[in-house]
UniProtKB/TrEMBL annotation:
Family: Belongs to the alanine racemase family.
Cellular component annotations (GO), alphabetically ordered: cytosol
Organism the protein comes from: Cyclobacterium marinum (strain ATCC 25205 / DSM 745 / LMG 13164 / NCIMB 1802) (Flectobacillus marinus)
Listed GO MF terms: acid-amino acid ligase activity; alanine racemase activity; ATP binding; pyridoxal phosphate binding
GO aspect biological process, one term: D-alanine biosynthetic process
Catalysis: reaction(s): L-alanine = D-alanine
Residues that coordinate or bind substrate: R590, M767
Protein name: Alanine racemase
Function: Catalyzes the interconversion of L-alanine and D-alanine. May also act on other amino acids.
Modified residues (N6-(pyridoxal phosphate)lysine): K493
Names of required cofactors: pyridoxal 5'-phosphate
Entry-linked InterPro entries: Ala_racemase (IPR000821), Ala_racemase/Decarboxylase_C (IPR009006), Ala_racemase_C (IPR011079), Ala_racemase_N (IPR001608), Mur-like_cat_sf (IPR036565), Mur_ligase_C_dom_sf (IPR036615), Mur_ligase_cen (IPR013221), MurE/MurF_N (IPR035911)
């Protein structure tokens, strides 16, 4: 954003301003205190979240140096005292103030603004258009899909004076929402992507939804839309001047006729303009949605006066929008964050934020960055990069591109510069990369995927992909079932159900888990060695290694009396208290003490103050099935009585916890102080009651290694049990039972998804490979095959072979690469 004087801004608002000293100008506006690294020139705006009030984090922001605040009027006056000498604006609606600030920044902007709305494709059209236009303009675009009331404001705040163009998307879900977004964006060029059924329930009919969306285009000079969308097209024709409307269609009669025809592996797009000029574009995309999005992009770029040839060059660099950041393991113990898709400052900041969450202990934090193509003020760009390097504690900066060499002096860390990607590849050895966390971010033209390939660990191409957005979604789903204040312990035992304990643990720490739990002490130590600072409960510490537990701040479970006696006898030598969780067996009959043990437990606790009871818990044996309801309730009742007796007699006030994932859904009223979330985090709802509310977080995929055409009757694999019913093709996939793809999936018991079709496994699954019938699908070597994900679902797969998703997930072998994606 441009520099804004806060007290001047405040004096124009009708809210109460408490001036502090000094009166600072602001350059950054932040709503999440965790994202502040140095609070200089920063404004913290406390918005109301669904569970937390933003003002609760004001002191955190203050501690980080922030001295400018917008707080809700209702925040406690004790808070204001803690923010000594700060400039504080007390407002009825901090969100409105944020939007006002965004509007000021927008109005100061001299360049053009493009506003995109519609039901689908907004983000992709924005990303692609930005990519095509970036050849000619220094532009700003909304990060990711920041299109809400908050997102749009933050997007507009990102516009800097040196930009020439900004592309912002706007999304609404109910009436009366667009006006505020229009006031911020004030686009001169509009794009209406399309109208679909999303949020229909909030509108009288589709036309009222179109009308609401079109409020964004109130003052546009040009409006791009698809004439074949009848309802949209009719409404626009009745309400917008012909000089404003720019339509495209498959058929003649629109301003741009853009018809599509399949062509080799892709599509040809024939264009004829109003002036009868023609041109043919080529793209590798073939699907309907992408072709619609592309034609919006082409029309918008043409309307901005871009030459077709230049647009074509841009199209060649496009690929399915993979805005996802991927965390992979690399050679020499390095971890790679692959963001070789595009390069702009907003994206850089998001990627650095993601890197920041993945704490490494041993190695350096390294950023490999290609030059950011800017026509504007180059020094401002370098300054911003330098600032980010400092904010995120980067140890080594590696710049690729000619411009970096001269600006090296600006950077606050060690830096190396390479003229182009080839010289970096040649000079890679000189960097001594080992155990480092490396963010690789470059514009498409730099082909940074070659760097990623070179640094990637040599593993076979079978991947378990963990979608962190889905993980977060599922976490939030369980959280909203619980009363505010109930803690969530996440079970990350067994390598986080196969998903990778360090990465998932770090992410859980970021999204607000309160506790983690593992089965064995080693697993806990592993988490500590990977930067996890949350409290960790160890379920089965075996014989207590007090030193190890203390060194790594692990909280053991005490599940039998003998353990407690031994602990009590040995803890005298121990300095400080040992937090433990007492497990009671109310009916699971696995681990845990029983009612008979209770008196002695109390006795020991009364006499040994070094044993601190951090938690008391029990585990339910049948929370996932209605038929066990009485049994479950009796378990919960016993727990209530026993835990109460223990607390009454010892005076301790531990966290009480009983519920696993299934229990949270069925018996949320028994959550007590904390729940223990496990399988649900990965999108598996074992009660089968709320499956549709969760998102699958794990996808197992591999590639086709070979394709064979076989005659009718030919047999496939060991034991010749697979038989071709007709002539057809068989694909060999690079996964077998050694990777955890169960041998019981043989002979059509499981299907895999290839080229959008579910096809059966043919013959027996082998140790390292298996075969699938891909007759008629035109499958090629290297094509992707999905073993489970959205489809086929792991739940159905487990059902098919008489097991449970837990077993399939935790059985995925160490040879399978884990990759973490965040969109
Ligand atoms: C594994 C485990 C859980 C989590 O179970 P899910 O069914 O995966 O939710 C909870 N508590 C204990 C004691 C566990 O062992």
């Amino acid at each position: 954003m441009q520099q804004i004087n806060f007290s001047q801004f405040a004096s124009n608002q009708s809210s109460l301003f408490i001036p502090g000293t000094p009166d600072e100008s602001i350059l950054f506006a932040v709503i999440d205190s965790r994202k502040i690294h140095s609070g200089k020139e920063t404004l913290f705006i406390a918005l109301q979240g669904s569970r937390h009030a933003g003002w609760e984090f004001a002191t955190d922001a203050y501690a980080k140096g922030v001295r400018n605040f917008i707080l809700p009027k209702i925040c406690p006056s004790s808070l204001l005292k803690k923010l000594a000498n700060a400039n504080i604006l007390l407002s009825i609606s901090p969100l409105k103030e944020l939007q006002q600030l965004a509007q000021i920044n927008r109005e100061a902007f001299r360049g053009a603004v493009i506003g995109i709305t519609g039901s689908n494709g907004k983000t992709i059209v924005k990303e692609w258009l930005a990519q095509v236009l970036s050849a000619q303009f220094n532009l700003w675009k909304s990060p990711k899909s920041y299109n809400s009331q908050i997102g749009v404001a933050l997007s507009a705040l990102g516009i800097n004076p040196q930009h020439q163009l900004a592309i912002l998307e706007a999304g609404i879900s109910a009436p009366d929402e667009m006006k505020a977004l229009q006031e911020i964006i004030q686009p001169q060029l509009g794009i209406f992507t399309n109208i679909g059924s999303a949020h229909d329930e909030n509108f009288k009919d589709t036309t009222s939804k179109i009308i609401e969306k079109c409020l964004l285009f109130k003052d546009v000079k040009f409006l791009v839309y698809n004439k074949d969308q009848e309802l949209v097209s009719n409404y626009l024709a009745s309400s917008f001047d012909p000089s404003v409307r720019i339509s495209w269609s498959d058929k003649p009669g629109a301003d741009y006729v853009l018809s599509v025809k399949p062509h080799r592996n892709g599509t040809k797009i024939y264009m004829m303009g109003k002036d009868l000029r023609t041109f043919t574009f080529y793209t590798s995309f073939r699907d309907k949605a992408s072709l619609e999005n592309l034609r919006h992009v082409i029309t918008a770029a043409l309307s901005l006066g871009m030459e077709p040839l230049m647009i074509q060059q841009g199209l060649e660099l496009l690929h399915a929008v993979d805005m996802r950041l991927t965390l992979k393991s690399g050679l020499n113990g390095c971890k790679l964050i692959d963001d070789s898709y595009n390069n702009d400052l907003a994206g850089l900041e998001l990627a650095l934020e993601f890197m920041h969450q993945q704490v490494t202990t041993s190695g350096r934090k390294i950023l490999i960055l290609s030059e950011i193509q800017q026509d504007g003020d180059i020094t401002a760009t370098f300054k911003k990069i330098a600032w980010l390097l400092g904010q995120y504690d980067i140890d080594l900066f590696i710049g690729v591109g000619k411009g970096f060499e001269e600006s090296k002096a600006l950077f606050p860390c060690e830096s190396r510069c390479f003229e182009d990607t080839d010289s970096l590849l040649k000079g890679m050895e000189t960097l001594s990369l080992s155990n480092d966390l490396i963010l690789i971010k470059g514009a498409r033209v730099y082909k940074f995927e070659r760097i990623v390939q070179k640094l990637e660990a040599l593993a076979h191409e079978t991947i378990l992909e963990i979608n962190l957005n889905a993980l977060r979604h599922n976490f939030m789903h369980y959280r909203q079932k619980l009363k505010v204040g109930t803690k969530i312990m996440v079970m990350v035992k067994a390598f986080a159900y196969g998903g990778g304990a360090a990465e998932i643990g770090n992410y859980l720490q970021e999204i607000g888990a309160d506790y983690l739990s593992v089965a064995y002490t080693d697993e806990g130590i592993f988490l500590r060695n990977n930067g996890i600072s949350l409290p960790i409960m160890v379920m089965n510490p075996g014989s207590f290694h007090l030193d190890l537990l203390q060194t790594h701040a692990l909280e053991p479970v005490v599940y039998n009396l003998q353990q407690l006696r031994t602990l009590s006898a040995s803890i005298d030598d121990y300095s400080g208290e040992l937090p433990v969780h007492l497990e009671f067996d109310t009916g699971m009959r696995r681990l845990g003490m029983t009612e008979e043990d209770l008196d002695e437990v109390i006795e020991i606790l009364l006499h040994n103050k070094k044993i601190k009871v951090a938690g008391i818990f029990t585990h339910l044996a049948g929370a996932d099935e209605a038929i066990h309801k009485d049994y479950t309730l009796s378990q919960l009742a016993s727990f209530e009585i026993w835990s109460k007796k223990l607390m009454d007699n010892t005076g301790c006030r531990p966290l009480r916890h009983c519920l696993n994932s299934a229990g949270i859904i069925r018996y949320p009223e028994y959550a007590h102080d904390m729940v223990r979330l496990g399988i649900g985090l990965y999108g598996i709802e074992v009660n089968k009651m709320e499956q549709n509310k969760l998102e699958p977080a794990m996808v197992l995929k591999t590639v086709v290694s070979q394709v064979k055409t076989l005659a009718k009757g030919a047999t496939v694999g060991y034991g010749r049990v697979g038989k071709m019913k007709t002539e057809g093709e068989v694909a060999t996939l690079a996964i077998g039972y050694a990777d955890g793809y169960d041998r019981r999936f043989s002979n059509g018991n499981a299907k895999v998804l290839i080229k959008g079709k579910l096809v059966p496994i043919l013959g027996n699954v082998c140790m390292d490979m298996c075969m699938a019938d891909v007759t008629g699908l035109n499958v090629c070597v290297g094509d992707e095959a999905i073993l489970f994900g959205e489809q086929p679902s792991i739940i159905d797969l487990a059902d098919k072979i008489g097991t449970i998703p837990y077993e399939l997930l935790t059985g995925i072998g160490p040879r399978v690469k884990r990759q973490y994606v965040l969109d």
